[in-house]
Amino acid sequence: xxxxxxxxxxxxxxxxxGRAGLRKFGVTPGGALDxxxxxxxxxxxxxxxxxxxxxxxxxxxxxxxxxxxxVAWSGGEFEMRIGDExxxxxxxxxxxxxxxxxxxxxxxxxxxxxxxxxxxxxEILGSRATDxxxxxxxxxxxxxxxxxxxxxGAESELCPRIRAALPNVVSxxxxxxxxxxxxxxxxxxxxxxxxxxEAKLLAQKFGVAMNSDRMGLRLEGGEMVxxxxxxxxxxxxxxxxxxxxxxxxPVVLLGDCQTIGGYPKIAHVITVDLADAAQLQPLDEVxxxxxxxxxxxxxxxERERDxxxxxxxxxxxxx
Length: 319
Prior knowledge:
The protein is α+β, with helices and mostly antiparallel strands. Helices cover about 20% and strands about 35% of the residues. It is globular, with a radius of gyration of 20 Å.
């Protein structure tokens, strides 16, 4: 049971929901930069939510499966096809043995592809996610290359029931879509927030620099001056933390970020907006909006409630 990588695209990696509970050992959480997109795609094909799938960044990705499977995708502005059949975002689709899957960007960002049974690479430190900087996990600790042969796991008991219920290649039902797709990110105050930071961070538009990656979005074009240009005692940081280096150019940390840092922590992108942060790419522009911590918590609770409702609906329909 395998998926042959005919065309790997650029920086396509195996990702799941990441490595939890290991930050105290210096291990980054990693995983899909938009974990909700991966979770929904997995639910659509009958997988547990955090089964390993593929994170697609750019370029055309083509896979050939040697076994019947279900597939689904979510994320940014991409196109997916099975042969000549277009597959809409957040819909489940059948792939027959020998079938070809193709996913490619219309504009860019990132997309997540789930295959029933998941990508069955070895589990390391509780996860199958690829850590590109530490070079472990996923497929040989690296991005995929043309010619790789990915093992697929066994399908769950739910998968055959979903497959049997599909009237055509593509489902006539779909999962809810999250993310505003707006070019601003909501933030809460950080430890080193002050009136000067507020005035400059919220009033300006920033560009995403070319050297941005899964570790962080490096911003440019705004005028930021740190109120404390000296490095501080290193403290914990997390995905969403906005640091202000000596250069005065903010950095929004993403899933592969370090676990501690010594730059001022001026703000934090709220959890539900990390999905939008994952779609930003070089030359995009972004602005920030300040909200309160309790509102951020309410938004996260609301999103998780919606995911739970969709999960429950699938269980009722196919359980």
